[in-house]
Specification:
mainly alpha
């Protein structure tokens, strides 16, 4: 196990990912079917964070086989939290292949500038951010709520 995976910060991230997977079916996320994020997509992205040996590879395989353009902002949002560098690189390689952006490599800032220059994230992106960040602080679920108009584009909240 890499040294960073054993540090308290990485244990927290792995715990966060496990909690997210356990909460993936929480009723508050499925309350509004029209705006609810597809649970299988959310679970696959959160699976990239889990320290179980096969979870990241299975998640990447599923994302590759089921890729949609709306996955780009989700991938860029979660890549910073992936504890295994090889998994993070594999996710960015998948995004590069699907978007045709071969020159950005592992430069997260460049990817974000590219994303901000594109169209707004899909409506399900706020629910995705709520699923990720509410495991850090439950108040983020309300922060990313879509029940009222946003003054700041959700994709630009870093």
């Amino acid at each position: 196990m890499p040294a960073r995976a054993a540090s308290p910060g990485w244990r927290f991230i792995r715990g966060l990912a496990l909690a997210a997977l356990l909460l993936a079916g929480h009723p508050s996320f499925a309350a509004d079917e029209a705006q609810a994020l597809d649970e299988s997509v959310r679970v696959r992205f959160l699976g990239l964070l889990v320290g179980y040996p096969d979870a990241p590879a299975l998640a990447l395989e599923w994302l590759d086989a089921n890729w949609r353009d709306e996955f780009v902002p989700m991938a860029l949002e979660i890549v910073r939290f992936i504890p295994q560098r090889s998994t993070a690189r594999a996710l960015l390689a998948l995004v590069a292949r699907e978007t045709g952006e071969k020159d950005l490599g592992d430069d997260w800032s460049a990817w974000m500038r590219r994303q901000w220059a594109r169209t707004a994230p899909p409506p399900s992106f706020a629910a995705f951010k709520a699923a990720v960040y509410s495991n850090i602080d439950p108040r983020f679920e309300r922060y990313f709520a879509t029940s009222y108009p946003a003054l700041i584009e959700c994709g630009q909240l870093v």
